[in-house]
From TrEMBL:
The protein's name in its UniProt record: Phosphotransferase
Domain Aminoglycoside phosphotransferase span(s) in chain numbering: 14-214
InterPro entries: Aminoglycoside_PTrfase (IPR002575), CcrZ_PhaseVar_Mediator (IPR052077), Kinase-like_dom_sf (IPR011009)
SUPFAM superfamilies recorded: Protein kinase-like (PK-like)
Organism the protein comes from: Siminovitchia terrae
PANTHER family attached to this UniProt entry: CELL CYCLE REGULATOR CCRZ (PTHR40086:SF1), PHOSPHOTRANSFERASE YTMP-RELATED (PTHR40086)
Length: 257
């Protein structure tokens, strides 16, 4: 990685499970480097959704390295997810034609509820299926599947955890970590955001900022996707033997009902 830059740059791993991200710093200049980012990153940068893309370079071994601005700022705190800028940025993402067009060119097709249900079933082993909350949740997903269809499919982030939202020192808001981006019902993003971070009494206000009317059908879709994502988390954490996280999401599953 060092040979891509001039001398005197300090490069350190940025953490993360893939080991593909690095921070580079020299004097007062900072860059965020990543190996083999999707071409989607260029459109996200152009739309102002992620920090500005500075350059892209292809290495001799075929790897592509991207460099983005490394801004001074911080991750969002959970209670900050209720602020107006979050709703407005998510609306911008969901309504972006360039983002949708690029994902289509990259081969993404709509991620429909029945596809997600298949993933949920595959993620659950026999022991998990014996858990009363998991069993009840799976029955809910299967029963309500015919009722959660949506005519609108948009670019969805897929993991709107507050750690993926950044606030710069200039009060710019960014949403990062787009490796799981997909084309889906926007309720895939909206549901977890509301369930995890917004008090129920404030849902109508938040949806008003986003530009949606609170309806029973929207509520059902949000609940369906929250339960499905929670069950995927339970299955994944168990497969990784991360039992504390598995139990956390298992307990959360009971609260959704």
């Amino acid at each position: 990685m060092k040979h891509l830059l001039e001398h005197d740059w300090e490069i350190i791993p940025a953490g993360g499970a893939t080991g593909k991200a690095f921070f580079a710093s020299k004097n007062n200049e900072k860059l965020f480097l990543k190996r083999n980012s999707s071409p989607f990153l260029a459109v996200l940068s152009a739309e102002g959704i992620v920090p500005k893309l500075i350059w892209t370079k292809r290495m001799e071994n075929g790897d592509v390295i991207t460099a983005q601005e490394c801004l001074n700022g911080r991750e969002f705190k959970p209670e900050e997810m209720a602020q107006d800028g979050v709703a407005k940025l998510l609306k911008k993402i969901h309504e972006s034609s360039p983002l949708l067009s690029m994902l289509g060119r990259l081969g993404k097709t709509p991620y429909k509820p029945e596809m997600m249900l298949e993933e949920v079933i595959s993620a659950l082993d026999e022991e998990l299926l014996l858990d009363p909350a998991v069993h009840k949740s799976l029955q809910f997903l299967q029963t309500e599947l015919p009722h959660v269809s949506s005519e609108k499919f948009t670019v969805c982030h897929g993991d709107i955890n507050h750690n993926n939202w950044l606030l710069s020192d200039n009060n710019e808001i960014f949403l990062i970590d787009w490796d799981g981006a997909t084309i889906a019902d926007p309720a895939l993003d909206i549901g977890p955001l509301l369930y995890w971070y917004i008090p129920r009494d404030d849902w109508k206000h938040w949806l008003g900022l986003y530009g949606l009317k609170y309806t029973e059908h929207l509520q059902l879709r949000m609940k369906w996707y929250v339960i499905a994502q929670t069950m995927l988390s339970i299955g994944w954490h168990k497969s990784q033997q991360r039992y504390q996280e598995m139990n956390f999401w298992g307990n959360y599953l009971e609260t959704v009902f």
